[in-house]
Amino acid sequence: MNNLINLIKKGESQTVEFKKSFAEQKEILQSICAFANMKGGKILIGVSDKSEIIGADIGKNTLEKIPQKIRETFDPVVFPSLVVEEIEGKNIVVVDVSEAPEKPVFFKKDAYKRVGRANRKLSANEIRTLARKSGGEVYWDEQMCQDATLEYIDDKKVKWFLRKARKERNFDVDPETPTKDALERLKLIKQKGFTNAAVLLFAKYPQKFFLQAKIRCARFKGMDGDDYIDMKVLEGTIPELRENTIKFIMQHTKHGVFFDENRRYDRWEYPLRAFEELISNALAHREYNSPAQIQLSIFDDRIELWNPGELPEPLTPEDLKRKHRSIPRNRLTAENLFLIKYIEQWGRGTNRVIKSLLDHNLPEPVFQNLSGGFEVIVHGPGKEFEEEIEKEKYHILDINERQKRAIKYVKEKGAITRREYTDINDVSSKTAYLELNDLLGKKIFTLQGKGRATRYSLIR
User: Fold this and answer.
1) What is residue 347's three-state secondary structure?
2) Are strands 41-45 and 16-19 parallel, antiparallel or unpaired?
3) Cβ neighbours for 302, distance < 8 A, ≥ 6 positions apart
4) pLDDT band at residue 399, thresholds of 50, 70 and 90?
């Protein structure tokens, strides 16, 4: 905070701009453009040009309007970070703009640069010179996908995306917009060709073009990975890969079913929201030029997720545990995943993962560059989770000692009959019938067979 106060005291400069409020939106966007075309800079919203701290009025969705406008009106899109700081009880929004890797950056039809404390429109000659110096880097996902035509694009997937983007980010494109027009609005068509990002997001079968765009999932025995119980290689678009990977995790991790007087509720061994974030990041930021696949490995005590491509410089694994900037490897893909709220683009995703794990009483994840890729290791609760399930479930359901004895018997033998219940508890057949039915009603036991062959087993 002291650094910010000192910055305000020094006043506006080549790298610092003050704005009273978000009402000066056009000027804010021009400054972002100017800083991106130079060496970067900061815009402080809620501060007057005389260095007076006024405070910014931050309404609902206010912080989302700036990135949305950038996406709609900037070419190429830049990714400033927006952070709210409190000074003297007033909110100041700090917009931190990095120098753009690809220049010139245009706001609408014009490009700007910073000259002293003002923004100036670039001349045609300055634009040509800046482009020549920049070298015009083209990201992999912005390149044209050879042989990809409209017939390979799934109209239903595009409509689903537009509906979700409208719901999550108020993206103003009608879901019934013709597919080609929609992809143009999403900047996924260039020079009448489909980008690699368009194929990853909307193709009927993306792996026809990119064999590496898969996720290899395995559930290993024990904790060493010498043999596996189940293995699947998942295919599909990025949203389909994300959804099916979560399903695989749910299939191969534990969850407890609890009851109280009014409802049933579930608790998973791992917080699924954290893995939605991690999988989205892996799909958005992987190195698609690599022939390797994303790998998800589930063990008794942990889950490991590895994707091709180390963290882009200057990010380090340690940076991901504190405030940091987002540096997308696949910029066009990231922009579109932002629209459906799969990623945020502000460098807060890993911080949310850490918080989710800590809230679940799990340790912080391990982040590391490994074998030319990036790996996340999430350690689970182990056997403690099973013990917690049993203890809480039976406490809530208020079952007697005979019923607990029967549950233990079923765990060892696999099932129990009414006759076996009477034998191990020394009770009448009627009592056995009533108490077994009670366990059925509480959804602990389920029935197998009929008549004399009826057996009771645990619900899985």
Assistant:
1) coil
2) parallel
3) 223, 377, 378, 379, 380
4) confident
Query: In terms of pLDDT, which residue wins out, 249 or 130?
Result: 249
pLDDT at 216 over 60: yes
pLDDT at residue number 443: 80
Distance CA(343)–CA(338), nearest Å, equals 5
> What distance, in Å, lies between the first and last C-alpha atoms of the chain?
53
Q: Domain map of the chain by residue range?
A: 2-135, 142-208, 215-383, 399-458
Q: Is it true that domain 215-383 has CATH number 3.30.565.60?
A: yes
- The whole-model pTM stands at 0.62
Residue 154 token pair: 């799934």
Classify 2-135 by CATH class.
alpha beta
The two three-digit tokens of residue 19, written as one number: 């704005």
Closest CA to 272 of 239, 308, 304, 247: 247
pLDDT of residue 283: 97
Q: Distance between CA atoms of 130 and 134, rounded to whole angstroms?
A: 6
Candidates 438, 239, 216, 211; CA nearest to 336 is: 239
In contact, 218 and 188? CB cutoff 8 Å = no
**How distant, in Å, are the alpha carbons of 7, 135, 279, 379 from that of 101?**
26, 9, 26, 37
CATH code of the domain made up of 399-458: 1.10.10.10
Q: Is the pLDDT of residue 9 over 70?
A: yes
- Whether 215-383 and 2-135 are alike in CATH topology: the answer is no
Tokens describing residue 429:
């057949």
